[in-house]
Structure formats: structure tokens, C-alpha cells
Amino acid sequence: MNTFNAKILSNEEVAEKIFRLTVDAPELAKNSRAGQFVQVKISDEFTLRRPLGIASTAGGTVKIFYRAVGRGTEKLSARRAGECLNILGALGNGYSNFGGKILLVGGGMGMAPLLCAAEKFSADVLLGGRTKDEVIFWQEEFRPHVGKIFVTTDDGSYAKKGFAIDLLPEVFATENYSAILTCGPEVMMRGVAKFAAEKNIPCEVSFEKRMACGLGACLSCSIDTVDGRKKVCKDGPVFDARKVFGGETLE
């Protein structure tokens, strides 16, 4: 884990309020695992760093996706190529390599850490979003790294209408997977975890929580697990689904 300055190579809006940030960070790219994250210092006017998932480490660069929804991320969206960002990372625990072919299931900005997993593992992907605009760019990002791409949209404006978890039975009807890795809204991950339990295959979930320090000191991102309270930033963000959802959804 290091703190370093990384040169911004690009910072582009790829959908409404969604940005793709690429920085030159060869050491981070070399040493990070799929599912880990970084803490980015936006500017001197913000005391706290912002936690952002690592979405790609190809070619010695690190790619990060974020949604501009508050003062911090709005300020980040204004940063330009050639400027430097101070970055702390890589942080947290990443996804496990289960071998064989895995299925990646994500929704919204939860697709970001799964893209990094797609680069490193043999995988297919099932991605969901509210509208066509929210999934089309993800489809293009995943295309070079996965075998099959399955897509759903809440409003039916593109591909299958419905939620990602609704398509799971159809996906598993023609493929066998060694594990499922998922990230996105908690209600979606609960559904994915229950499906994986019914199929008796491993499932890992990545939590998106507000984090102040990113190091496990402030306790702001604590969650309940079957093993007691855990910190998403230090003990996660990736957890065994059975550890965090337990019997309430997986019975």
C-alpha cells in the first residue's frame, strides 16, 4: 500500500454523469488485485479522500469509473489530462480465483470491479442497468475480456427487460460456472447469493460503502457478518456471500 502521485491520462464522460478516469500508475497496476480499491485525494479543499474501485490494470495504466453525484466527484470530473492525482492504494481484499469459468453479475457502478475481474479470470458477464445508456458503454468495455455478455435494462430500452437476477436461470440453463462474483445494489447481490446457494456454487460479493479513512480505523463502513462486525475497507470489500447474508436469505 502506497501513497503516490499519478498523472491523469484521460477523464472522459462516457454516459450521463458517469466518468472514466485513466491514470499512469504502473506499480499499482502490477500489484493490485481485482476487487481492490484506491482512496483518491480530490483537492486540498476536501479533507477526506474518495474511495474508488479499480476497474482495469491493462498496460500499466489504472482505469476507474465514477458517477459525479456530489461536490467531491463533481470536482474530480473537472480534472484534466496532464494533472496529477494523489492516490492511496491498493486497499482491501480482492476476489478469489476459483479457476474454471466464472459468471460476473453486476448492476450500475458495481460493474467497475467486475471489469477488472474479467481481465484476470475466464468469465462471462451478466450486467444490468436502468436504461440503455447505463449499460451500452459497459458492454463495450467488457467485450474484449469475456466470452458471453448478457444484458438487462429495467425499462426494456435495450436487450432483456427486467433485473439482472431475473436472467440467472436462463444463463445457467446453457452454461456451468465454477463461481459467481457480484457487485452492485445490495438487494441484487442478495438475490445472486441466494441463487448461488441453491446451485451450491461459491459466490463472492463486493460491498459499496461510504468510507472515511479506507484503512479500518474510523469504523464508518462496518457491517454485520456471521463472524461479527467487519470493516468493508479492511476486511472486504469482497466477502463470501454466506458470511454477510447468512441464513436470512440463503436458507
* Fourth-tier CATH superfamily name of the largest domain: Nucleotide-binding domain of ferredoxin-NADP reductase (FNR) module
Counting DSSP E segments of at least 2 residues, the number of strands comes to 15
What is the CA–CA distance across the termini? 38 Å
Largest sheet: 7 strands, mixed
Provide the spatial order of strands within the biggest beta sheet: 10-9-8-7-11-12-15
| Total domain modules | 2
CATH topology of the largest domain: Rossmann fold
CATH architecture of the largest domain: 3-Layer(aba) Sandwich
Instruction: Summarize model confidence as the mean pLDDT.
Output: 89
Beta fraction: 25-35%
Q: Element order, helices and strands?
A: EEHEEEHEEHEHEEHEHEEEHEH
Q: What's a concise summary of this model?
A:
With 251 residues, this protein is an alpha/beta fold. Helices cover 27% and strands 34% of the residues.
What are the main properties of this structure?
seven-stranded mixed beta sheet, disordered C terminus, 2 domains, 27% helix, Elongation Factor Tu (Ef-tu), domain 3, 251 residues, six-stranded antiparallel beta sheet, Rossmann fold, 8 helices, alpha/beta
